[in-house]
């Protein structure tokens, strides 16, 4: 029997359903039309269909001539530069062989770009990062628009890639869609040691060679980075939304269990394909309740603040409208169950070993903090995701996951959480609306009042630190970093510097209309401030020396300047360049960008 839903979870869900009534109905109407039209290849002419498999092996050609033989699309973010996506190179042959074994075919329908914020951090390329999500969504649509498929598999892992794949696939929500992850790399040096060397480098006490050696020992093999940033938060959310096979998220790449899970995905896709008794279109899996489940998982595990953008965008692609107030209200009743770096000392491998997603799902369901009665690609409901995959005599099986945490320093039950609340809060006030990740910030640092020092980009702040000008209490205002200004790059390069100043005993914080990494940590940061400075938001009128108060307890972000005086001030502008490194190609996206609280991308005026 399902646990009674928490009244706040129920209230937020009902509010989302009501708010989304018109947009969700419009989305489902489009999907229903596509369902009634039947499988795409049934509508293709003989010439169309012959083109679609002209280069296929002879056995595949014979199966594809059979209208009862399902054809599964593969859409992949493979490249061999990025550790998380390099393992995907091996997946298509495994998928094709598994499909053949059940009388189906699988085709590599298309690739999508995958860029890494860890590589572009602090570089001009980071200004393409958020908009790459839109490019991935459109690339996914191009791959599926051949309309020759009965189901689809999405191969992608990291920050913008999974959200982009979700958005693109939802345009084909009449298809069953399963997400196939690659898993994290094995653990390298401790996160504490990595942070220590970064701090020394920020102070000029470690050489670049020493820093590089440390980073190479941390990022050392195939798989996702092992800290709990946006990439691993993606994998958690795909479990909470029922788009993975259960327990897929954190199994290492290039292992027998990972290969077995990859092979199981096309088999399951065929079982739930159009025309089967278990037909499970993506549009039914992704609804208001599964979106609330994703938020609950994000809050309970201290996940990435980037998903206050990405999850909003994914939801809108399904006709579901959420905002930061929903995150805030759910955060107040969802306890923090996990301490994973940067919110703790251990990585996702230790989280997985301690009980991982199966434990989190069980705890949230038993406490009524997540919806059990959702549709998943695994069949049944979300209880399937409190199971874990294992190999038994070489065969893939699922067993009940841990009912108790195997390491209470990493993972705890709802009855004994690390914090009584989740890790994301909404801040409001004269400067606009913003979000803050509180789960890694010490209690003493959750409220700060200090004079502003205003910067137009992160390089100005880093230069001021190098000149020794920041050894004092201050709140850094880094503006003109929103979607319209420059594509909303992450400002993760500021974390070591601000962390060092805080460790010296200074009261410091960050206020910005830009993003921080999913790995943002101990320094209080009011991020995604909206309206952004480039839209004439109040950040454009803040001056050096203005007192700013950031209070995560009270949910307040304000500048202590008389309202009339602030309104009378001229609005600053930026002379930042949007040319070079491909940035000139994305001008239309900057001009079309939605505000941060609407997802920040360029597509959502049309999708809303």
From TrEMBL:
A Pfam family the protein falls into: ILV_EDD_C
Cofactor note: Binds 1 [4Fe-4S] cluster.
Annotated ranges, domain Dihydroxy-acid/6-phosphogluconate dehydratase N-terminal: 70-383
EC number per UniProt: 4.2.1.12
Pathway where this protein functions: Carbohydrate metabolism; Entner-Doudoroff pathway
Binding positions for [4Fe-4S] cluster per the UniProt entry: 158, 225
Domain Dihydroxy-acid/6-phosphogluconate dehydratase C-terminal as annotated: residue spans: 409-599
GO molecular function, one term: phosphogluconate dehydratase activity
Reactions performed catalytically: 6-phospho-D-gluconate = 2-dehydro-3-deoxy-6-phospho-D-gluconate + H2O
Cofactor(s) it depends on: [4Fe-4S] cluster
UniProtKB keywords: 4Fe-4S, Carbohydrate metabolism, Gluconate utilization, Iron, Iron-sulfur, Lyase, Metal-binding
Family of the protein in this entry: Belongs to the IlvD/Edd family.
NCBIfam families per record: edd
Biological function: Catalyzes the dehydration of 6-phospho-D-gluconate to 2-dehydro-3-deoxy-6-phospho-D-gluconate.
Alphabetized HAMAP family for the sequence: Edd (MF_02094)
The protein, known as: Phosphogluconate dehydratase
Gene: edd
